[in-house]
Design a protein that fits this description.
Chain lengths: 116, 109
């Protein structure tokens, strides 16, 4: 099983809503990532969890709040978002063994978010 | 600063060969990745190079020259389904991926 799953696939929310994005992997990977991707741009790293602990926060606004309940799950809680936050949100995982190919990241299909 | 350059767009003909170049300047080097991304979909892993030379995987090959800070992705026997963006990414000394902007490849019949 080399699959990373994400739900929902699409999400439309208002600026006052609270919603959550979910990501799951069953590959035994110990590193999980949230990326944001705008059209025709590369993915931008938001957060990295390593062994269920937040290891990197790329100066992301507090309206994005990550959570890692266990080694297979990663959530991204959204609150009071702005229209410019509309994007494709990608989750990825990697073995987390800190060595070259062992850090290959495998991506989920993404959640396309529209903030109105 | 860290920088990865690749052409914005390329066009090729079905059945032909195309080479997508990537040059990089990063703080440290722990390997170079190529990903394919179809419009509206997630990136999928294609190849990884950490030593100089050519890695071949079916119709796709990837080359690396660390001394030149240069890589290319070679696609042979192009098919219409190869129309996608191809992203070059370098893993730096902190094991973080530094991404290029991607090359949009258009395949014409």
């Amino acid at each position: 099983d080399t699959e990373v799953t994400q739900t929902p696939k699409h999400l439309v929310m208002g600026m006052t809503n609270k919603k959550s994005l979910k990501c799951e992997q069953h590959m035994g990977h110990r590193a999980m990532y949230w990326y944001k991707q705008k059209a025709k741009k590369p993915p931008e790293l938001m957060f990295v969890y390593s062994y269920e602990k937040l290891s990197i926060n790329e100066s992301v606004p507090s309206r994005f709040s990550p959570e890692c309940p266990n080694s297979s799950l990663l959530n991204l809680h959204l609150h009071a978002l702005q229209p410019e936050d509309s994007a494709l949100y990608l989750c990825a995982s990697s073995p987390g063994l800190a060595g070259g190919l062992q850090e290959t990241q495998y991506f989920g299909p993404g959640t396309r978010l529209l903030v109105l | 600063g860290q920088n990865i350059d690749q052409p914005t767009e390329m066009t090729a003909t079905e059945g032909a060969i195309v080479q997508i170049n990537c040059t990089y300047q990063t703080s440290g080097f722990n390997g170079l990745f190529w990903y394919q991304q179809h419009a509206g979909e997630a990136p999928t892993f294609l190849s990884y190079n950490v030593l100089d030379g050519l890695e071949e995987k079916g119709r796709f090959s990837s080359f690396l020259s660390r001394s030149k800070g240069y890589s290319y992705l070679l696609l042979k026997e192009l098919q219409m389904k190869d129309s996608a963006s191809y992203l070059c990414a370098v893993m730096d000394s902190n094991y973080q991926l530094i991404w290029g902007a991607g090359t949009k490849l258009i395949i014409k019949p």
